[in-house]
Amino acid sequence: MPFALLAVALTGCSRRTLEITSEPSGALVWVNDVELGRTPLKASFLHYGEYDVLLRKDGFEPLRTHKTAYTPLHQRPPLDLVTAPLPIENTTSWHFTLEPSKESTTPKTQLETELTARADELRKQIDPADAANSTPGLSPAPK
Known about the structure:
There is one protein chain. The protein is of the alpha+beta class. It has 2 domains: 13-101, Immunoglobulin-like (Sandwich); 106-133. 29% of the residues lie in helices and 32% in strands. It contains 5 helices and 7 strands. It has helices at 2-9, 79-83, 102-105, 108-126, 128-133, and strands spanning 15-23, 28-31, 34-38, 41-44, 49-56, 63-69, 89-97. The strands form 2 sheets. Strands 3-2-5-6 form a 4-stranded antiparallel beta sheet, with no helix packed on it. Strands 4-1-7 form a 3-stranded mixed beta sheet, with no helix packed on it. The radius of gyration is 26 Å and the shape is elongated.
């Protein structure tokens, strides 16, 4: 009888939870190309290790990064043989800060001017002779 009680008491297993927050909240999150939802969120995961993370929110630059869920000491060999049957919850927390997109913070005319300037610089790198004959902000005539 004591063995049966011990077996029932130790039938738990570790629960792994990933907690993701962002500033600002409400960003859509993908982990390893699987959509999890909007921040703040909690999701369970099976394995510790490396993960690819993508966050998107309107008005902010997309954030693509790489994060690691580290294995806690009590789940590393040989300690895991003792702690595996215990109902332990492990939470890995990741916080991300999103940067406002240039389109949401810069006037349209300034964006157009900067874009035209970058295009002119690229044109100079391709064919300096054409760039010398072109008018800034205008495309050279086709040959």
